[in-house]
């Protein structure tokens, strides 16, 4: 399409109301209007074909393989009708315009479906584990080598902190500017997952013999530890200045090379499993106590995030 052409401008300005249509803000609907005279009349892909291409797009997006993403998108575009592309767009941008939410679907399927999906980010696992409505999710399903959705920080009003904490004590921690990462360890096998469930084991090391981190931390764990799941922040540490680097310093902790003057350091602030015992429902205080018992920190490689107990807003 000519960049300054009428149809191109409709796509570029899809959020702008035109007065003659109710499609403002609906990119897929506007794309359908533009594409319906330009695409093949009937598509020739099966549902399996589409699923395979969408899986490939998700996988290659995690691996930042832009050429392969483009290849999958071009395959979908060349073999689908305008109407099919309308719904493909809605699936890819996760805005189906169906008049009901994801939460509604989960609540109809199973009362615990939303909770399990929030933890695992795995729709297939939700369907398999909760296909029977009579089955209850007695424990949050955090499991070894399966990515879960971590709890994220929220902005709070310091003036109201005492009321929000019910006038009880709370912990203060430094907010780190790195990459949220969970570490799953079972014996000599390690896996690393980002907050969105992407697997970065290849970068950080799936065994004590490989990666930018695992070889340096394998021996820090106590002898009676069989397995564990840790939650923390992956940081870049400068051993010369003995400081952490910030995200804005033009480096990517997930892709640092061996000859970099920086080194990978994992800063742990929570533990979710220890020797097959799930700890998500334990108090934060107890989880902190366990954390301090299971490994010995190494400066610049493996840290426990320091915290201070407080009870008033003046201490924040």
TrEMBL record:
It holds the Pfam family DNA_ligase_A_M. Its EC number is 6.5.1.1. One of its GO terms (cellular component) is DNA ligase IV complex. Coiled coil: none annotated. The keyword Lipid biosynthesis does not apply. It catalyses: ATP + (deoxyribonucleotide)n-3'-hydroxyl + 5'-phospho-(deoxyribonucleotide)m = (deoxyribonucleotide)n+m + AMP + diphosphate. InterPro entries: Adenylation_DNA_ligase_IV, DNA_ligase_ATP-dep, DNA_ligase_ATP-dep_cent, DNA_ligase_ATP-dep_CS, DNA_ligase_ATP-dep_N, DNA_ligase_N_sf, LIG4. It comes from the Eukaryota. It is an enzyme of class 6 (ligase). Gene3D superfamilies: DNA ligase, ATP-dependent, N-terminal domain, DNA ligase/mRNA capping enzyme. The keyword Magnesium applies. Keywords: ATP-binding, DNA damage, DNA recombination, DNA repair, Ligase, Magnesium, Metal-binding, Nucleotide-binding, Nucleus. One of its GO terms (biological process) is nucleotide-excision repair, DNA gap filling. Residues 257-316 form the ATP-dependent DNA ligase family profile domain. One of its GO terms (molecular function) is DNA binding. Belongs to the ATP-dependent DNA ligase family. This is DNA ligase. It comes from Rana uenoi. The lineage of its organism: Eukaryota, Metazoa, Chordata, Craniata, Vertebrata. The gene is LIG-4.
């Amino acid at each position: 399409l000519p960049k300054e052409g009428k149809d191109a401008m409709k796509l570029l300005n899809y959020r702008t109301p035109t007065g003659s249509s109710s499609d403002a803000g609906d990119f897929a609907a506007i794309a359908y209007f533009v594409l319906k005279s330009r695409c093949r009349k009937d598509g020739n892909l099966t549902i399996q074909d589409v699923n395979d291409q969408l899986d490939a797009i998700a996988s290659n997006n995690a691996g930042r393989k832009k050429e392969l993403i483009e290849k999958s998108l071009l395959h979908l575009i060349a073999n689908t009708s305008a109407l099919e592309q309308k719904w493909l767009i809605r699936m890819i941008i996760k805005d189906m315009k169906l008049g009901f939410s994801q939460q509604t679907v989960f609540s109809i399927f199973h009362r615990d479906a939303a909770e399990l999906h929030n933890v695992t980010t795995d729709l297939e696992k939700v369907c398999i584990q909760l296909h029977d409505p009579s089955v209850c999710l007695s424990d949050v399903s955090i499991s070894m080598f399966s990515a879960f959705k971590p709890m994220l920080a929220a902005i709070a009003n310091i003036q109201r902190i005492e009321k929000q904490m019910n006038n009880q004590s709370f912990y203060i921690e430094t907010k780190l500017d790195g990459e949220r990462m969970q570490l799953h360890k079972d014996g000599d096998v390690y896996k690393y997952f980002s907050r969105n469930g992407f697997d970065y084991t290849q970068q950080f090391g799936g065994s004590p013999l490989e990666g930018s981190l695992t070889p340096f931390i394998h021996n820090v764990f106590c002898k009676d530890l069989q397995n564990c799941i840790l939650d923390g922040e992956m940081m870049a540490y400068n051993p010369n200045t003995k400081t952490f680097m910030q995200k804005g310093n033009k480096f990517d902790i997930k892709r640092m090379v061996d000859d970099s003057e920086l080194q990978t350091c994992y800063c742990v602030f929570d533990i979710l499993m220890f020797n097959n015992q799930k700890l998500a429902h334990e108090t934060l205080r107890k989880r902190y106590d366990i954390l301090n018992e299971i490994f010995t920190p190494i400066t610049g490689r493996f840290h426990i995030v320091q915290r201070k107990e407080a009870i008033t807003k003046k201490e924040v």
